[in-house]
């Protein structure tokens, strides 16, 4: 009877060790994957960069982006349009193309930005 308890205890410890090793392996493989940002993050940061170019950024009303495409590696291109007031208070429809690069840790850098009145 004692032998049976020792065997069960030994198998339980072995199962625990194997499970711990598997969990550690999964965590390492997940954390080693490259973080290149995502479409939503690129859209949000591009809107911030576009607003910095406007005379009246508080008046900016962005439509849903026309596209957000991963160019290569950690670089994204977002295209869209917005309505914003000019210096005279007139509402203009503007289009933008914004290229941003994800730096990691929720940080983005601007690569290129064009804001034009079509």
Describe this protein's structure.
The structure is a single chain. Helices cover 38% and strands 36% of the residues. The protein has helices at residues 2-31, 39-53; strands at 61-62, 67-72, 75-85, 91-104, 107-116. Strands 1, 2, 3, 4 and 5 form a 5-stranded antiparallel β-sheet that branches. Strand 3 (75-85) and strand 4 (91-104) form a beta hairpin. It is elongated, with a radius of gyration of 26 Å.
Helix content: 25-40%
Q: Could you report the average pLDDT, rounded to the nearest whole number?
A: 82
What is the 3D shape?
Answer: elongated
Radius of gyration: 26 Å
N- to C-terminal distance: 86 Å
The ordered H/E elements are HHEEEEE
Stated plainly, the CATH topology of the largest domain is called Nuclear Transport Factor 2, Chain: A
CATH class of the largest domain: Alpha Beta
The poorly predicted ranges are: 26-33
Question: How are the secondary structure elements laid out?
Answer:
Blueprint: H1 2-31, H2 39-53, E1 61-62, E2 67-72, E3 75-85, E4 91-104, E5 107-116
Keywords for this structure?
Nuclear Transport Factor 2, Chain: A; 2 helices; alpha+beta; 2 domains; 118 residues; 38% helix; single chain
Short description:
By secondary structure, this protein is α+β, with helices and mostly antiparallel strands. It has helices at residues 2-31, 39-53, and strands at 61-62, 67-72, 75-85, 91-104, 107-116. A hairpin with a 2-residue loop joins strand 2 and strand 3.
């Amino acid at each position: 009877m004692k032998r049976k308890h020792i065997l069960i205890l030994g198998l339980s410890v072995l199962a625990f060790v194997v499970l711990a090793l598997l969990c550690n392996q999964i965590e390492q493989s997940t954390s080693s994957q490259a973080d290149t940002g995502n479409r939503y993050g690129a859209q949000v940061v591009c809107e911030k960069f576009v607003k910095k170019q406007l005379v009246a950024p508080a008046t900016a009303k962005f439509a849903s982006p026309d596209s957000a495409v991963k160019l290569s590696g950690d670089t994204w291109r977002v295209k869209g349009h917005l309505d914003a007031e000019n210096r005279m208070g007139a509402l203009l429809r503007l289009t933008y193309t914004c290229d941003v690069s994800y730096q990691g840790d929720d940080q983005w850098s601007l690569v290129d930005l064009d804001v034009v009145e079509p």
